[in-house]
Amino acid sequence: MNDNMDDVLKIRRLEQGEEARWDAFVEGCPEATFFHRAGWQTVLRRAFGHVGHFLLAEDEKGLIRGVLPLARVRSLLFGDALLSTPFAVYGGAAADAPRVAAHLHREAARLAGQLGVDHLELRLQTAAAVPEGWPVKDLYCTFRRGIVADAEKNQLSIPRKQRAEVRRGVDQGLSFRVGREWRPCWDIYAESLRNLGTPVFTPRYFPILGEVFGPDCETLLVSNREGSAVAAVLSFYFRDTVLPYYGGGTPAARSCGAYAYMYWQLMNHAAANRGCGIFDFGRSKQGTGSFDFKRYFGFEPLPLHYAVHLVQGKEIPQVNPLNPRYALFIRAWQKLPLTVANGIGPWLAKDLG
Fold first, then answer.
1. Which of 69, 70, 327, 339 is the most buried (most CB within 10 A)?
2. What is the tens place of the pLDDT at every residue in 184-238?
3. CA–CA separation, 351 and 353 (whole Å)
4. Which pLDDT belongs to residue 2?
């Protein structure tokens, strides 16, 4: 790499019609994730109205050397932020050299100042990627491990207590189907979020994801003996990895082992039918029920490093359900009728980022 990289690299916005070039780089960059794909700019705009600022770094030959997906989320409740990437587990620059990533991060900080946001947040996977001097939010962990195209081996990889839940689901006569059933999946997810005290996204979001990402986005629904859907998950696929991303269940799901059954069957399907070798269980906040569930399912937490650059803001924002200031809101939301929660939830959820 040229020592005078700042002189030879050109940082600019992704232009319409360049999405295939961007995605080709992402596909071949080891640091890139599903959330670095160019389609997120379209998804964020169409589903939530958020403006994307997707940056790419080119060398003097016009070759892409790095990308940085960014979008602005402005909220009366949670402030004004430039995020990489909203509604995503991972973000930050994906580049072919650390200095390219650093150059992109500096440009993001400059852009954040130009826009006058409260803060810039980079959702980085490793501490080594954090820009020097930036404070880090250590709230989240991610969970990843291998899977194989053998249902019995996947079941044996699950610790004994949750393995018993898988068997209970089998004994209860649960079944599953894989497809692109956006509305049934959203209905179950929305009810699950209401019960947790969290606003849900617009129902347009899931079909937009399916339209933009095509076969790399699909649903898995679990039904009981009577044929009623009791649990569902929307998953993303990227290279050899499956990411179960939006999952939930009805009140009946827990009593019949539907959660454990669902994720076990997703492991089997993803490995046997999609060629996946990695199951990425996504992020969870430390101290929450989902964090414990993933640990009990045999996954070890890996800390995430969300780096923050303050611009107009004076302190790192703490949009966290464990924050006492949100506890009253959560309890009140859990008591709302489902139709009311689903009606007003999307207005709030679009700004959560």
1. 69
2. 999 999 999 888 888 889 999 999 999 999 999 999 999 999 999 999 999 999 9
3. 5
4. 42
Alpha-carbon torsion 96, 308, 305, 122, what sign? negative
Do 291 and 263 touch, CB atoms closer than 8 A? no
Vertex 288: Cα angle to 285 and 293 (nearest 5): 100
Q: Which residues pair with 246 in a beta bridge?
A: 234
Beta bridge partners of 119: 81, 310
- Quote the CA–CA distance of 181 and 260 in Å, as a whole number: 20
pLDDT category of residue 324 using cuts at 50, 70 and 90: low
CB 93 within 8 A of CB 100: yes
Quick one: tokens of 123?
């959702």
CB-CB contact of 297 with 158 (8 Å): yes
The CA distance from 185 to 316, in Å, is: 34
Is this prediction's pTM over 0.90?
yes
- Eight-state DSSP code of residue 50: P
**Location of structure tokens 């700042």:** 6
| 8 Å CB contact between 107 and 122 | no
Query: 142 and 88 in contact (C-beta within 8 Å)?
Result: no
